[in-house]
Structures are given as structure tokens and as C-alpha cells.
Amino acid sequence: MKVPTRTLNNGLKIPTVGLGLWQVKDQETFVNAFDVAYKAGYRLFDSAQFYRNEQYIKASIQKLKLKREDLFITSKIAVNNFGYNKTKKSFDQTLDKIGSSYIDLMLLHFPVSILRKKSWMALEEYYESKKARSIGVSNYTIRHLEELKKYSKITPVINQVELHVFLQQPDLIKYCEDHNIKIEAYSPLAHGLPFDNRDIIKLAKKYNKSYAQIMLKFLLQLGLIIIPKSVTESRIIENITLFDFEIDAKDMNQLKKLNKDLRTCWNPTMVP
Ligand SMILES: NC(=O)c1ccc[n+]([C@@H]2O[C@H](COP(=O)([O-])OP(=O)(O)OC[C@H]3O[C@@H](n4cnc5c(N)ncnc54)[C@H](OP(=O)(O)O)[C@@H]3O)[C@@H](O)[C@H]2O)c1
Questions:
Q1: N or C, which end of the chain has less CB nearby within 10 Å?
Q2: Domain extent listing, the chain
């Protein structure tokens, strides 16, 4: 399956669907998931220093004999690696672990107070030296993005945030659209909450699709990039089989009504 791409503000193309890799802890499970995903058409893989599995990307590329340039690899600077020198040092360690001279996208994982500015400066340097093909942020609220705008030379290409049918963040989507920053929706399945919403069940029946596919397609139709995580073969395939149907405008509006500002992960709104 060929997955459509979106173009980032620096011209780089990113697939609209990627594989989330948080909590994929052992090499065998990781390489298996990578293999199934690659064969199903995934090219975007979302890791992080904090996940402690970046080294399995290198193992996957070697074992599956993949071409590095076919892949779009993301990682994130962990909170405990913030600060100018530590960000640079940990960035080099990431490159070493993934076995590549560059990464496609490096994000600041969280808007760590005070240190986030220095870390962003380090990312800009690594972008200029081409060790990162693009740089961005994660868990940034509008306030954090406004602050970043004051001192950054480079606009982040992406803000990766928790976003799903129960946490829709319309103001953040609008702000990012206006500033040419793409939103990448993490925990797009609400981090595995029970699939028991009656409206979504009804729509799944109507479109002859699964509950997960309705949740994911909703986000794609909002114009977002999604990175569902699964290590289960059938689900990995299901989560990318999204391009043979369209949710109509009336049903999109019904799904928009399900927003209840429900966070399943961290809450960055309190970070000064
Ligand atoms: N930047 C950040 O701070 C941040 C925070 C959280 C997540 N993320 C990224 O976003 C990715 C996705 O988020 P997430 O892992 O929190 O949660 P998610 O993708 O919303 O949900 C993953 C859970 O749903 C299950 N699942 C997946 N597909 C399914 C399907 N078709 N039917 C039924 N169940 C299904 C998975 O189980 P199985 O694996 O057992 O199949 C897993 O338990 C992460 O892996 C990570 O890459 C980033």
C-alpha cells in the first residue's frame, strides 16, 4: 500500500501514517512489528530516547535488509537530556544507535522549563549541519509555541501532541495551521482505552470498518499525521488500511461532538 504524504514547511515529505514504538521493549517484538509494518506500507517509524529502543531500528534495517533512504525515522530528545551540550551529546548517541549519519525528524519530547530554549538552539545547529532533515517539538501548547517563535531561527515542522476523538484540541490545530506547523497525533487510539463508545461502534458498522479505523480516519480527514502503535500483525495492517473509504461530513460532525478534553498521557498545559 502506498501511503499519501504531507509536505512539511521545509519541503520534506512525511507519510500520513506511521508506526508508534513506545513500549515496544524487546528486540524480537520490535523487529517483527517493523517487518510487518514495512511490508504493509509503513515508512514512518516513531521512536524516542526515552523508549530505549532506538538501537532496534538499526537491528531492523540490518536484519530486514532495508534501504535507509526509504525510511522516515523520528526520535525525540528525552527530558533528562535537555540543555545545550546534553542535547547535542544525546543526539549523537541517537545517530549511533540508529546506525545512520542523519535522522529524518528530531523532536524535543516535552517543553521542559528553562532548558527548552537551549535544547532548541542545539537542534537548529544539527539541522544546519544536516544531521537532522527536519526538527520539531512535542507536547507544546500554543503558549510554548509563541515563546519559541520569539527566539527560533527555524520554525518547527511538527508539533507531536496527544490528539484523538476524545481530545480534539481545535485551537491548537488552528494555531498550527496558521503557523505552517503540522500536527502529528500521538495516542490516536486514546492509548488503548476500551473501544466502547456507542457512536463510534455505530459508524464502524455503517462504514463496514473497525472501531480503530473510524478513530484513525477521523484524524486523517482533519488533515493530521497519525502514529498508532501496535505490535499485533493484524492491527498493524488494519491501522494503515484507511484509504478506501471516506467519512461523510455529517458523521465527521458527529465525531467532533465526542470531544471531552480527555488526556491519557502527560498534561503539558501546566508547564510554565
Ligand atoms: N510525544 C509523546 O510524548 C508521545 C506520548 C505518547 C505516545 N507517543 C507516540 O505515539 C504512539 C502511539 O500512541 P500510544 O502508544 O500511546 O497509543 P495508541 O496508538 O493510541 O494505542 C496503542 C494501544 O492500542 C492497541 N491497538 C493498536 N491498534 C489497535 C487496533 N486496530 N485494535 C485494537 N487495539 C489496537 C495497542 O495494542 P497492541 O500493541 O497490543 O496491538 C496498544 O495497546 C506511541 O507509540 C509513540 O510513538 C508519543
A1: C
A2: 7-264
The predicted model gives 231-236 an average pLDDT of 98
Band of pLDDT at residue 101, cut at 50, 70 and 90: very high
Q: How many helices (H) and strands (E) does the chain have?
A: 10, 10
Name the CATH superfamily housing domain 7-264.
Answer: NADP-dependent oxidoreductase domain (3.20.20.100)
Q: How confident is the model at residue 1 (pLDDT cuts 50, 70, 90)?
A: confident
Find the 169 Cα to ligand 1 centroid distance in Å: 19
pTM over 0.90: yes
Rounded distance between C-alpha atoms, residue 67 and residue 69, angstroms: 5
Of all residues in the chain, what percent carry a pLDDT higher than 90?
Answer: 99
Determine whether the shortest distance from the Cβ of 77 to ligand 1 is under 6 A. no
Residue whose CA is at the smallest distance from ligand 1 atom 36: 230
- Residue type at 223? G
The CA R_g of the chain, rounded to the nearest whole Å, is 18
Interval between CA 151 and ligand 1 midpoint (Å): 33
From 38, 51, 127, 140, active-site residue: 51
How far, in Å, is the centroid of ligand 1 from the Cα of 186?
8
Evaluate whether 60 touches 37 at the Cβ level (below 8 Å): no
**Letter string b/e over residues 172-187, b meaning 16 or more CB atoms within 10 A of that residue's CB:** bbebbeeeebbbbbbb
Q: Could you identify the residue written with the cell 534501504?
A: 67
